Amino acid sequence: MFKVTIHPQWEIVQGAEKSLNTTALLALLRAVELTGSIAQAAKKIQVSYRYAWGVLKDAEVLFGKPLMHTQRGRGTLLSQLAQKLLWADRRIAARLSPTLESLASELASELGKLADNTTGAVRLDASHGFAVAALLNELHAIELPVELRYRNSTDAVTALARRECHLAGFHVPLGPFEHRAAARYLGTLKDKDHCLIHLAVRQQGLFVTPDNPLQIHGLADLQRPEVRFVNRQAGSGTRALLELMLVDAGIPVTAVNGFQSSEFTHSAVAAYIASGMADVGFGVQTAAERFGLTFIPLVQERYFLAIEKTAMDLPLIRRVLSVIRSDTYRASVNALAGYEAGDTGKVLSLGEAFGAI
C-alpha cells in the first residue's frame, strides 16, 4: 500500500528579480514565532544560523521591509509582514488540504494498481470534517487502504447511490431543522437498501474575531452592513443548514454582506476571519478554536456514514467499523472541541435515525 502526501508550495517574484521559494522562509518564520530567536529557530528546523540569516535577508530585500524586530528582554518578534505571510500560508493550507488529500488518495490508488497491489481499498466520499480526518489517521495507522474523495454531502450520498463508493459522509442538524435538512438525502437513500453508521455529534455556530469587538451574538447581527461575513461553498451541508436557519429567522440572504463568498472547509473559513479578511463565519467549533477565534454555539448536528446494507459484511468494512468503535478513535473524537462520541459506531436504519420517512 502506498501513501502519498501532497503539500502546497508557493513562490513570490517582483519584476525581473529572482523568485522567492517560500518553503524555507515560512518554516523559519514559524520556528521564530515559536522560539522567539533566530538562532533557536535555525536549530529547530535543522539549518545553519548563516543559512537562516541569508533566507531572511533575501526575503527582506525582495519586500523592502523587515520581517523581524528584536527587542530587549522580549527576543525576536515577527513583523506585521511576516505575520501576514504566515496567515497566507495557513489560509492556503486550510483551503487546499481537502483537494490535495483527495488527489493524493487517487494517486496512491493508481500507483497501487500499477504495482499490481490488488488488496482493494475502502472507497470513502465525505463532507470534510475533523471526525473524518481523525478516522483517516486511524485507518492509515493500521495500513487499511482508503480511496478518499472530499466532496459536499449531497454529492457524497449521490455517489453512494451510484455505487461509486462504499461509504458516504454527510451531516444533519438536531432539532427543528432536522427533517428539512435530512430531506436532501432521503430522496436518494433508501431504507430497504441503506443504513447509517453514526460517527459523531458536533457543534456548529458563529466564528468571530477574538474578544468579539463588533459584539456579534446571533444571526440577526449578520444583517448589519459593517459586518463582513464569509460563507461555505454552495452545495455544502453547512451552507444549506445556514440557509434554513436564515429563512427561519426571516433574514434574506441578500441582507448578509458576503453571503455569496465561499470557502471549501471550516478551517478555511476560520483562517479567513483570523487573517482579518472577514468578521464572522459559520462552522464547527474545532476550526474556531484552532485559529484562536471566539465561538458562538447555535446548533448541534450528527455526522453519519451512509452505506449499502449488503456492504456491511465486507471484510474491509468490518475493519473500518472495528476502528470506529475502538476506544482510541472515540477518544480522538471526544478530544475535538465541540465533538461528542457517545453513539460513535452505532448502526442505524434511516427510520431509526430520522423517524417516519
Task: Summarize the SSE layout with pairings.
Elements: E1 11-12, E2 20-21, H1 22-35, H2 38-44, H3 49-63, E3 68-71, E4 75-78, H4 80-114, E5 122-126, H5 130-141, E6 146-150, H6 153-161, E7 167-173, H7 178-186, E8 194-208, E9 229-230, H8 237-249, H9 266-274, E10 280-284, H10 285-290, E11 294-308, H11 315-324, H12 327-334, E12 339-340, E13 347-348, H13 350-354
Parallel strand pairs: 5-6, 5-7, 9-10
Antiparallel strand pairs: 1-2, 3-4, 7-11, 8-10, 8-11, 8-12, 8-13
Helix pairs in contact: 1-2, 2-3, 4-9, 5-12
List the defining traits of the structure above.
20% strand; 13 helices; alpha+beta; 13 strands; globular; 357 residues; 9-stranded mixed beta sheet
Detailed description of the structure:
This protein has 357 residues and is an alpha+beta fold. Helices cover 43% and strands 20% of the residues. It has helices at residues 22-35, 38-44, 49-63, 80-114, 130-141, 153-161, 178-186, 237-249, 266-274, 285-290, 315-324, 327-334, 350-354; strands at residues 11-12, 20-21, 68-71, 75-78, 122-126, 146-150, 167-173, 194-208, 229-230, 280-284, 294-308, 339-340, 347-348. The strands form 3 sheets. Strands 5, 6, 7, 8, 9, 10, 11, 12 and 13 form a 9-stranded mixed β-sheet that branches. It has a two-stranded antiparallel ribbon with strand order 1-2. A two-stranded antiparallel sheet has the order 3-4. A hairpin with a 7-residue loop joins strand 1 (11-12) and strand 2. Helix 4 (80-114) packs antiparallel against helix 9 (266-274) and helix 5 runs antiparallel to helix 12. The longest helix is centred in the N-terminal third of the chain and has 35 residues, at 80-114. The radius of gyration is 23 Å and the shape is globular.
